[in-house]
Fold this sequence. Notes:
Blueprint: E1 6-15, H1 18-37, E2 41-49, E3 52-59, H2 62-69, H3 72-84, E4 85-94, H4 100-110, E5 112-115, H5 133-147
Antiparallel strand pairs: 1-3, 1-4, 2-3, 4-5
Helix pairs in contact: 1-3
Amino acid sequence: MRPDERFVSITGVRPHGHVNRWMFRWHSHRALARARQAPGNLFAELHRQDGMIFALTIWDNAPALYRFARSKARAKALLMFRANASGKSFGFLSESVPSWPDAISLCEAKGSFFGTLPPEPPQAPPKGPPATATEATEAERTKTRATEPQD
């Protein structure tokens, strides 16, 4: 690492569900305030775009970021994020602060995925003829039962 290089960390988080967005804002702002106070932090800022919350932090070096990453304040936010969100995180050495568009595109292109995927909506049964012989046989049995006279 050269003397003029700093460690840049970009994280983009997408909360799952409307209620989680408010909890995210609260946890994000608390974690950001703690990051700003952490030894070795030079810059910390949040940005919202397309339903995601991005955090851009700049540190004197990677060990300073890792010390903060193991802190209690970040651990609480991380528990919330991992259970109710997904996102990407990317870190690198840089001589300058990237612009928000550059930071977001780097995070999306090179970031490592974390969190949970949002729940899938229930799938409707397929319409049309059955795809397999087993389905066809089951459909015939159901039709036969429906037309048989009841005692």
